Amino acid sequence: MFPSRITALFNIHYPIVQGGMVWVSGAKLAAAVSEAGGLGLIGAGSMKPELLRTQIEKGRTLTTKPFGVNVPLLRGDAAELLEVCIEQKVPIVFTSAGHPGKFIDRLLGANAMVVHVVANVKQARKAHEVGCHAVVAEGFEAGGHNGVDELTTLTLVPMVVDAVPIPVIAAGGIADGRQMAAVFALGADGVQAGTRFAATVESSAHEAYKQAIVEAGDTGTTLTLRRLAPVRMLKNLFASRAMDAERQGANREQLLQLLGEKRERAGIFEGDREEGELEAGQSAGLIRDIVPAAIVVQRMISEYEAAAKKLLSPR
Amino acid sequence: MFPSRITALFNIHYPIVQGGMVWVSGAKLAAAVSEAGGLGLIGAGSMKPELLRTQIEKGRTLTTKPFGVNVPLLRGDAAELLEVCIEQKVPIVFTSAGHPGKFIDRLLGANAMVVHVVANVKQARKAHEVGCHAVVAEGFEAGGHNGVDELTTLTLVPMVVDAVPIPVIAAGGIADGRQMAAVFALGADGVQAGTRFAATVESSAHEAYKQAIVEAGDTGTTLTLRRLAPVRMLKNLFASRAMDAERQGANREQLLQLLGEKRERAGIFEGDREEGELEAGQSAGLIRDIVPAAIVVQRMISEYEAAAKKLLSPR
Question: Is ipTM over 0.90?
Answer without folding.
Answer: yes
